[in-house]
Design goal:
The chain is an all-alpha fold. Helix content is about 75%, strand content about 0%. The relative contact order is 0.05.
Length: about 240
Amino acid sequence: TNTATPEILCLLADTYLAEGPDITNDQTKTVETLAKRALVIDPQWGNAYKILAQVANDRGEHQKAVEFANKALATKKPDIKAYLQRTLAYQAMGQNKLALADITEYLKYTATDPDMHVLRAGILRALKQPLEEIEEYKAALKLHYRDYTVYQLVQTYEQVGKFEPAIAELTKLIKATGQDAEAFQKRGHIYSRIKKYNEAIADYSKAISIEASPRFYKERAAIYQQMGNTRAAQADLAMSKKED
């Protein structure tokens, strides 16, 4: 109606955007129309500019997203979520230092959102700052324990040669899930890197009992070969071909 307020118009626009990848082109056009209507009523309504920035990011128009985000933050009624949209735009354009500055600012308002810590960790990875990256993953895990975050943390630990903390994180994950073949495989792989071959074989054997993956057999065969157990290695390679 003609009496709809900017708040109502933007609430409807954000509701459409909540469809994520399922949003249609027609719905996206509706979102833009709603945001522009809001700005006609109140040019200082920052949320409307944030919505336009989000649409631009979704379309891959990242420079345009930055411009809309700038406007969203410069209004008398700024929308702090514009920091997130600008972060995503800068990250997509490879401007990771600018992305880091924005996500760091945004985290002042959303420190309890684990996804934002994971996002910051990803940017730190691109900037090759692994120690800070590790701290972000740990912060995310304190807020919400997820296997994806554990694997990212373990990968970073492994990259910097911190194998024991990586094993400890995987052990926690194994205790939490019990039947995660990938967790056993990954821990076995790290055990093999520090030449704890018996522990590595035990973990690979457990992984294979959960999921008889050809990859697991090949990797266990390589460990057997390092141990000098050629017969066991050949048997695993044969099983790998069979499962494949």
